[in-house]
Design brief:
The structure is a single chain. With 199 residues, this protein is α+β, with helices and mostly antiparallel strands. It has 2 domains: 4-29 and 148-198, no CATH class; 32-145, Mannose-Binding Protein A, Chain A, CATH 3.10.100. 17% of the residues lie in helices and 32% in strands. The protein is built from 3 helices and 9 strands; from the N terminus they run βββααββββαββ. The strands form 3 sheets. It has a 4-stranded antiparallel β-sheet with strand order 2-1-8-9, with helices on one face. It is globular, with a radius of gyration of 25 Å.
């Protein structure tokens, strides 16, 4: 869901009146239908470790993407009660703990080490048919679509901005007026509008 939040704070000094008003608008929720799907690590021979870049490239080529660590947590994904890591899209060479052995959903990564190599380890997926390393022979991708919210939230907030500006002009007692609009357009983009009027 997308939250359009408009916060109007009116601080009036040298007057017995002071007010703080919080107006929140829930408008045009997005349509988001996504699932986490297992993908078999089967495009190479046995006894190969899954590199982050291989999993990421394979997901992109299939028109999908790696999940985020939060999506693992929200969906409650677990590979078992042992130490196991899965690649995630939060950053390059970043992995999330998918084994419920005490550190589940923590993340780890880096430019060197096992994060983007094909070496076989018991704590990350290996290719199908492997006789050593991890018994997990899959990784996860996100499948689904997200429709952005319909227009209207921005115009509502702008209209409110104009209204409050006119309202403040009619209040000679106002010493300080602060107005803030926070609009969340997508899950990654924020627009912040700050207007300050001093009298």
């Amino acid at each position: 869901m997308y939250l359009y939040m408009c916060t109007y704070t009116c601080n009036i000094s040298r007057s017995p009146l002071s007010a703080c008003i919080l107006l929140t608008f829930l408008t045009s929720p997005s349509t988001r239908t996504v699932t986490i799907k297992q993908v078999a690590f089967d495009w190479v021979g046995p006894d190969v470790g899954l590199a982050w870049s291989d999993a990421n490239d394979h997901a992109i080529a299939a028109g999908t993407r790696l999940p985020t660590a939060d999506e693992f947590r929200i969906k409650g994904i677990s590979d078992g009660d042992f130490d196991q890591w899965q690649p995630v899209s939060d950053g390059q060479n970043l992995w999330v703990q998918s084994g419920d052995a005490g550190r589940i959903y923590t993340t780890e990564g880096g430019e060197t080490g096992w994060y983007d190599s094909n070496d076989v380890f018991p704590f990350r997926p290996t290719s199908e048919g492997s006789t050593s390393g991890s018994p997990v022979h899959h990784f996860y991708v996100i499948v689904g679509t997200e429709t952005p919210p319909a227009g209207g939230g921005l115009s509502v907030a702008v209209s409110l901005s104009v209204f409050l500006s006119l309202f403040s002009a009619a209040m000679p007692m106002v010493y300080y007026l602060s107005f803030t609009i926070d609009i969340k357009i997508t899950h990654k983009l924020y627009i912040y509008i700050h207007t300050y009027i001093h009298k």
